[in-house]
Structure formats: structure tokens, C-alpha cells
Design goal:
Elements lengths: L1 H69 L4 H18 L1
Length: 93
């Protein structure tokens, strides 16, 4: 019984620093995970903003191409415009 009490005392004495080391390790790893998550959120924000900018650029390019086609004197484009206008009139009536 006396040996058992001594063993418990030794285990208790050494378990306190081991627990402190383990909790410190867990705290540090949680801080690292937090930094990683913050970086991922920032990256997703940048991706989203880039997507918006690219979409706006494509929309402007499309508008410019449409304006160029509408202002064109190419006979094929003029025929296409006339056919679209007649189809629109037919559908609306």
C-alpha cells in the first residue's frame, strides 16, 4: 500500500507538466488553424471579387461587340437584323 501511495504521488507530480505541455501544444495548433482559416476566407473573397470583375469585363465586351454588329454595313448582318425584326413582329401579333 505504501508503494502504491508513492507511485500515485510520482504520477501526479509528473502529470502536471505533461498536461501543461499538451494543452500548450493544442493551443498553438488551434492558433495555426485559425490563421489558415482566415487566409482561406481572404482567398475566397479575392476569388469572388475577381469573378465579379471578369464577369463585368465580359459583359462590356459583349455590349461592344453587339454595338459593332448593329452598326455594321455587312449584308449578312443586315439580313439577320431584318429576320429578327420580322420574327419579333410575328411573335408579338
Amino acid at each position: 500500500m505504501e508503494n502504491f501511495i508513492g507511485l500515485v504521488a510520482v504520477v501526479m507530480v509528473f502529470s502536471i507538466p505533461l498536461t501543461a505541455i499538451w494543452t500548450t501544444h493544442l493551443r498553438k495548433s488551434q492558433k495555426v488553424k485559425l490563421i489558415i482559416v482566415k487566409d482561406e476566407i481572404e482567398l475566397e473573397k479575392l476569388k469572388y471579387n475577381n469573378f465579379l470583375l471578369e464577369t463585368e469585363k465580359m459583359r462590356i465586351d459583349l455590349q461592344q461587340k453587339q454595338e459593332n454588329l448593329l452598326g455594321s454595313s455587312d449584308p449578312l448582318v443586315l439580313d439577320l437584323q431584318k429576320s429578327v425584326q420580322t420574327e419579333t413582329k410575328t411573335i408579338s401579333t
